[in-house]
Amino acid sequence: MILLDGKETALAVRQEIAASVAAATAGGRRPPGLAVILTGEDPASQIYVRNKEKACLETGVIPFSFNLPATASQAELLAIIRDCNARRDVDGILLQLPLPGGLDSAACLLSIDPAKDVDGFHPENVGRLSLGLPGIAPCTPAGVMELLCRYNLSPAGKKAVVVGRSNIVGKPLAMLLYRHGTDATVTVCHSRTRGLTREYRNAEFLFLAMGRPGMVTGEMVRDGAVVVDIGISRTAAGLCGDAHFASVSLKARALTPVPGGVGPMTIAMLMKNTVQLWKNRMAVS
Ligand code: NAP
Fold first, then answer.
1. Residue 119: active-site member
2. Count of domains observed in the chain
3. In testing the pocket of ligand 1, which one of 47, 140, 169, 187 has its CB within 8 Å of the most ligand atoms?
4. What is the Cα 16 distance to its own chain's centre?
5. Does 257 lie in the same domain as 185?
6. For every one of its 285 residues, what pLDDT tens digit does the chain have, with 9 covering 90 and above?
7. How far is the CA of 231 from the centre of ligand 1 (A)?
8. For residues 259 and 222, what is the distance between their CA atoms, to the nearest angstrom?
9. Among 99, 114, 129, which residue terminates a domain?
10. Who lines ligand 1 at CB under 6 A?
11. Domain boundary among 63, 97, 114
């Protein structure tokens, strides 16, 4: 079985990004800048934001950190986003989700300039993805695709099953899988899907994005399947994916670990998207 090592792969991606940023800035360009907006004191969000800022420093991206209290108003948050939209040194804007109760995340995401929408959550970028136009894809699905590509695992013509239909993972992942050039045949499942086990067993490529720790066991998986476990749940035993790792690893041809699989790839893609937005803005300014 091939262990799809997201940690090693993400390191390689970050090193490539760092080299391309260093080459461009040595030629006199200003470095890329990423605004990271954290609202409230959610411990998981604080860890994610720290890891993102660390990845910025490793790749030559300047992080601009905005930390707001959980009591911040919608108007205060929108004012920071407006300021970041206008700043020349900010190429990407990351709004760490979830926002504390009472704040409207959809309105905040809509207020981000689509040209600085590093997470690809703005309806304009979602629309571009669904139309197959060039643009920014959400970091987690983009990280999944990059990981498959680096291990030469092509889903072209294969039966792919995505379990989860969220706007940030399942839906964009399905779009990336069936688009021209990738060419998987995709089924999207969710909590109301009947005969889920049959769908798992049919999958040549199985993508799990439910947040149900250890739910998918080896006997539910097709022999030789590629299994990408996107789920992350905090359990008493530590971080855990949706796949029961020990039993699925006996059936799968390739499998991502949790942690150390898709998670690090997500952060690497955040850096890649930031640098892409920076290059786009340099080309027109
Ligand atoms: P979400 O918004 O809660 O969506 C979960 C999806 O799974 C929903 O579509 C839900 O169906 C479906 N689902 C839940 N229980 C199910 C079941 N028993 N059978 C079939 N489908 C089921 O979560 P998300 O934001 O997409 O995240 C999914 C998981 O990925 C979480 O564990 C999250 O922590 C993880 N994640 C990881 C990364 C990373 O970097 N590795 C990034 C983002 C998220 P309904 O639509 O019918 O409710």
1. yes
2. 2
3. 169
4. 18
5. yes
6. 999 999 999 999 999 999 999 999 998 999 999 999 999 999 999 999 999 999 999 999 999 999 999 999 999 999 999 999 999 999 999 999 999 999 999 999 999 999 999 999 999 999 999 999 999 999 999 999 999 999 999 999 999 999 999 999 999 999 999 999 999 999 999 999 999 999 999 999 999 999 999 999 999 999 999 999 999 999 999 999 999 999 999 999 999 999 999 999 999 999 999 999 999 998 866
7. 7
8. 23
9. 114
10. 140, 163-166, 168-170, 189-193, 196, 209-212, 230-233, 262-263, 266
11. 114
Q: Is residue 13 domain-resident?
A: no
Q: Can 46 be counted among the known catalytic residues?
A: no
276 is catalytic: no
131 lies in a domain?
no
Among 51, 168, 189, 190, residue to substitute to test ligand 1 (most atoms within 8 Å of Cβ): 190
Report the interhelical angle of 262-284 vs 43-59 (nearest 10°): 50
- Within 13 Å, how many C-alpha atoms sit on residue 113's CB side? 19
In this structure, are 84 and 150 located in the same domain? no
Query: In angstroms, what CA-CA distances link 126 with 94, 131, 136, 141, 250?
Result: 16, 9, 8, 13, 37
277, part of any domain: no
Residue located nearest, by CA, to atom 34 of ligand 1? 232
Query: What's the CATH number where 101 sits?
Result: 3.40.50.10860
Q: For residue 170, give its domain range.
A: 139-263
In a domain, 15, yes or no: no
